[in-house]
Amino acid sequence: MNSKSNIHAVQGLWCAMLTPIAPDGGVDHGRFVRHAQALLARGVDGVAPFGTTGEGVSFSVKERSDGVAALLAGGISPQRVVAATGCAALTETIALTRESVQAGCAGCLVLPPYFFNAMSDDGLYAWYARVIEAVADPRLRVLLYHIPQFSGIPLSVDLVARLADAFPGVIAGVKDSGGDWSYTSALLERVPELGILVGHEPHVPRLLREGGAGTICGVANVFPEMVRALFSPSVTPADEERIATFISILFEYPFLSAFKAIVAAQTADPGWRALRPPWIELPEAAQQRFLGALERAGMRVRPSRAV
User: Fold this and answer.
1) For a tag site, which of 35, 62, 206, 307 has the least CB within 10 Å?
2) Distance of CA 42 to CAs 14, 225, 230, 278, Å?
3) Alpha-carbon torsion angle 99, 31, 150, 164, nearest 10
4) Are 229 and 246 in contact (CB under 8 A)?
5) Burial of 29 (0-12, 13-18, 19+ CB in 10 A)
6) CB-count burial class (<10 Å; 0-12, 13-18, 19+) for 294
7) CA–CA–CA angle 30, 45, 219 (5° rounding)
C-alpha cells in the first residue's frame, strides 16, 4: 500500500457487514458476532456494520446501537469497527454518532440526510457541522459517505474539502461508493490528507497506486480473499477480472438478496437468507441459477461434500 495511506485510522480491507435477521424479524446477534469473527479470521482489517450492505437504514437507532454493542461484547475490538451512524433525522444521527464514539469505534460512517434531494452544499455543510459540534468529542472520526445512487444526495468535492478544512482531523475520510473514478480521482487530488476508501472493488488497485486508503466493501462478506488479492503489489489482470466477473453476476439479481444467498450456501445455514422488508429472499429457482453461475465461474459457494 502507498505509504501516504499509513496515516489513516481506517485503511486497508474493511467489510461492509451483512446483517442477519432473526426469526422474530430483529437482528440476530449470535450470527452477527460469529460473522464478524469469521471475517476477521479470514483477513479483513475491520468491519462496518449497518451500512448499505447491512440494510442499515431499515433498522432503528436502538437496533443499530444494540448490534454494535453485541459485536463489542462478543470480543470484537472497537478499533476494528466503523459504525454507520447516518440517519435522515439530525437528532438521531447525533445520538448514534455520540454513542459510537463513546464506545471507542474507529470511526463513524455518516450518510447525508436522505429523502430531501437537491440539497445545497451550504445546507449539507450545516448538517454535518451540527453533528460534529453536537457530539463535541475529540475522538470523533467521520467518514463521509458518498453513495448518491442510493441516498440521492451526492457529496461534492467542494463540500468535502470545505468540511475537511473546517474540521481537520475530525473529517477523517470518505467512503466513495459512487463507482465513478473521475470523482474518486478528484478527491485524491483535492483532499490528499483524507483517507479515501472505495466501495466499488474493481477500483481498489488503481486507488492504492494513487495514494488511497483502501475499501469498505460488500464482496468481503463472501470472498474476502478475492478482495485481498487486489491489495497485492503484484495484483494480476486475472485477479481484477475475477472480481469484475463476480460483480457482473451478482448484479443480475437484487444484490442484498444475492449476498445473503451466498452466505447461506457457504455456511449451510438457510437462516442467513432472511432480509428485512422491503428486501425479500431470492426465489429458490433464482438462487440456484445464481449460485450455479458463480460456481461455473470458478467461485465455490457450497461446502465441499465429505468423502
Assistant:
1) 307
2) 12, 7, 15, 31
3) 40
4) no
5) middle
6) buried
7) 75
The whole-number average pLDDT for the span 12-31 is 98
- Annotated active-site positions, please? 145, 175
10 Å Cβ neighbour count for 50? Answer: 27
For domain 12-236, which CATH number applies: 3.40.50.150, 1.10.3720.10, 3.20.20.70, 3.40.50.300?
3.20.20.70
pTM given for the model = 0.94
**Cα–Cα distance measured from residue 119 to residue 33, given in angstroms and rounded to the nearest whole number:** 37
Taking only the tens place, the pLDDT of each residue in 87-144 is 999 999 999 999 999 999 999 999 999 999 889 999 999 999 999 999 999 999 999 9
- Of 237, 242, 187, 241, whose CA–CA distance to 213 is shortest? 187
Give the three-class secondary structure for 91: helix
* The amino acid at 288: Q
pLDDT of residue 3: 36
User: How many CA atoms, within 13 angstroms, populate the side-chain half-sphere of residue 221?
Assistant: 31
Torsion angle of C-alpha atoms 129, 130, 131, 137, degrees rounded to 10: 80
User: Which DSSP state fits 88?
Assistant: S
